[in-house]
Amino acid sequence: MNAGIIGIGRYVPEQVVTNLDLEKRMDTSDEWIRTRTGIEERRIAGDDMDTSDLGLRAAQKALENANVSPEEIDMILVATVTPDQPFPSVACMLQEKLGAKKAAAMDVSAACAGFMYGMVTAKQFIETSAYKYVLIVGVEKLSKITDWEDRNTAVLFGDGAGAVLMGPVADGKGVLSFELGSDGSGGKYLYQDTNIRMNGREVFKFAVRQMGESSVNVLEKAGLSKEDVDFLIPHQANIRIMEAARQRLELPLEKMSKTVHKYGNTSAASIPISMVEELEAGKIKDGDLIVMVGFGGGLTWGAIALRWGR
Ligand code: UT7
Fold first, then answer.
1. Does residue 41 sit in the same domain as residue 111?
2. Helix spans in the chain (H)
């Protein structure tokens, strides 16, 4: 029994905040943000929308896309560091709002690597036949923990949601291999007190090393090589970090997903949002080998090699 993606959806809030808008608010420039991060604009949710509202919209689309009804979901996993409140979990809120009557529900806290942790957790339940359908939602409303006085972090983040429904797929399809990891000694480099705090340079060094290594490791575990990769979907934190991962896999530009310019860093939502956009653009096809890789506060990291299709 293999676990794969059978439905996918995304939602981003309508309000666009450009680099020029930020120039008016703080001591920064469009030029600095573009060249150091690749970000041009991001989406910010209004006061009327919390994390669960963003997640619900992405989840509904994923279920529609899979043609599976909420009553059939066995488990809901929500990867987020910006829940509406510490508890009840966002997953429980979605359980009610979706009407997922038989679903178990919990949040996963692994920051920007959370979506990878969620997918790998889902895979275990599906491949042991304990559960058939697991909904994984990566969602953040980072704007509510952003310090708008701190130019080191405020220019980087955005709000958004992505969701996948995972279930059994044909032999040779779905998740082929994975790697998850953590290093709590680096927790001091990226954390929340009231707002997000970050030592950008330390996180940058860690990310460049980890994204490349984890990508190579999942290929090795699947018995595949760099030449087999059709598409890389890296966590969208910074174009320079993403580029380092792409170069490590020796992939041409067009084989890497890039949405960071439009949405900034949406943490746990960035990988599924990017995946939806590539699918909609017709770039991911049945049978393609996809490598997804993320890193984040914790420190945490995770990567998956997946053969697209049901
Ligand atoms: O999902 C995980 C989340 N975190 C990350 O992915 C962050 C990883 N780190 C990074 O992406 C980069 O380190 C940053 C984009 C955060 C910073 O880029 P950098 O090339 O590492 O710049 P830096 O921290 O070395 O700072 C260079 C200069 C500093 O000025 P001085 O000390 O050289 O005079 C900063 O004060 O740029 C200054 N600076 C800014 N200037 C204009 C920092 N932020 C800004 C800003 N606008 N927004």
1. yes
2. 19-25, 30-37, 51-66, 90-98, 114-127, 151-154, 200-221, 239-248, 260-263, 270-280
